[in-house]
Amino acid sequence: MTPEQVDEFLAGLSNEALLALPWLFEFWALPHQLPPEGGWKTWVVMGGRGAGKTRAGAEWVRTMVEGARPGDPGRARRLALVGETIDQVREVMVFGESGIIACSPPDRRPLWEAGRRRLVWPNGATAQVFSAHEPESLRGPQFDAAWVDELAKWKKAEETWDQLQFALRLGGNPQQVVTTTPKNVAVLKAILNNPSSVVTHAPTDANRAHLAASFLTEVQARYGGTRLGRQELEGALLEDAEGALWTTGMIEAARVAIVPRLSRVVVAVDPPVTGHGGSDECGIVVVGAVTEGPVQDWRAYVLEDASVQGASPDQWARAAVDAMQRHGAERLVAEVNQGGDLVQSVIRQVDPLVSYKAVRASRGKVARAEPVAALYEQGRVSHLRHLARLEDQMCRMTSRGYEGKGSPDRVDALVWALTALMVDPAAAALRPAVRLL
Nearest to residue 408, comparing CAs of 308, 275, 280? Predict the structure, then answer.
């Protein structure tokens, strides 16, 4: 609204309405901070750091306990407030800048009874504080509502959550809200998969009006385009499959911002069988390597994921050649199991002089990927930023196979690139020494 529209709106309100306006959260709330409609049991507010999750939880508690007037009963009278520790519940959920007391109007503000670790509202409603370090403390009490904060980082999350579910047994429809930055933990995934759960989601940037500009600039510069940034800033749930060949921790440990002068650069292509909107992706990955000195000192750098979805043969071939030109690559490596000579023909139509090598898979995807995963374990492969979709596929590739949707075309291209740059040349360099032994 323009300043004139704001003035006109405020001028049309009564004095009582003006006094009430700061406390009407529905007027100020962002979409992800309001509970969805319907008969849900659990509402999960999942978002990045500073996305306004705590405010959403505190305001939901208000809607549950407050009546029309300060002394009138609300929908809930006995609540549980559960955080990682008692101190965190008190300092964040109760007394924090976006906590319950700060959000409550003066005539409805609850009192904190430190000795009993509880809040008491003017209408008699109470909220009792619990620590996730003591799941057994939830045995015995019973509630008609609960607010759970940062569940994904609790060490005893599953046990505490289970005890809370047994305690939510009062009223006609006991409900709970979970405010958390997502992490790949079983209890959170189970909650999200429960049919009685609903989810709202927002990145940190959604709440930028209430955050320091310098904070956003700093965290975006430091973590933007990384897998950790997707979790902590975008609020995305990043899943590492059980027994994955690559993990989030392994990839983040390999993150670099600067690449040294490279000995060689290759572009690897894993072409789709067909070329239309519903076809698999065409995996196109650019990797460079420093291969001077002893083999054990060689290092590789994943520079770009240039993969394309639903592209025609001409389109993916042009995307691959363009990637070569952007990075000054010496060679294009393409798997030809599906397309045979047609793959080379399509690429030559785009650039007749391209340095091209056809590779054919004689082993399964896992067998090809394991030597490449070993390079990561040895700390010999680094990633630049903005490789999120490639890294997602990597974390779903396990010793049993790929546990994601579709085909891991990006990972296949990565494996072919690192095989061409690191695995095969290293084997060839070591072969004379092996013969001498």
Answer: 280
Q: In whole angstroms, what is the distance from residue 221 CA to residue 395 CA?
A: 24
Residue 436 pLDDT: 45
Of residues 151 and 434, more confidence is placed in 151
Here the tokens at position 114 are 């430190």
Residues comprising the chain, all counted: 437
Question: From CA 244, how far away is CA 217, in angstroms rounded?
Answer: 33
Q: What is the CATH number assigned to the segment(s) 248-436?
A: 3.30.420.280
Compute how many other C-beta atoms are within 10 angstroms of the C-beta atom of residue 435: 7
Give pLDDT, residue 259: 95
Q: CATH number of the domain at 16-232, out of 3.90.79.20, 3.10.50.40, 3.40.50.300, 1.10.150.130?
A: 3.40.50.300
* Rounded Cα gap, residues 136 and 50, in angstroms: 31
Listed in order, the ranges of the chain carrying CATH 3.40.50.300 are: 16-232
H or E element in which residue 147 lies: strand 145-149
Mean pLDDT of the chain: 90
Residue 400 has a CB neighbour count (10 Å cut-off) of 10
Round to whole Å and give the CA distance between 272 and 198: 36
**pTM beyond 0.85, yes or no:** no
Q: For the CA atoms of the chain, what is the radius of gyration?
A: 28
- Asked if 225 and 388 touch (Cβ cutoff 8 Å), the reply is yes
Neighbours of 188 (CB within 10 A): 22
CA 228 to chain centre: 7
Q: What is the structure's pLDDT at 432?
A: 56
CA distances from 59 to 156, 161, 165 (A): 26, 22, 22
Return the half-sphere exposure (C-beta side, CA atoms, 13 A cut-off) of residue 287: 30
Strand partners, 359: 335
pLDDT in tens, 375-425: 999 999 999 988 989 999 999 899 888 988 888 999 999 999 999 999 999
Taking a C-beta distance cutoff of 8 angstroms, is the pair 104, 123 a contact? no
* DSSP characters over 165-214: HHHB--SSS-EEEEEE---S-HHHHHHHHSTTEEEEEE-GGGGGGGS-HH
pLDDT in tens, 223-256: 777 777 878 888 877 777 778 899 888 898 889 9
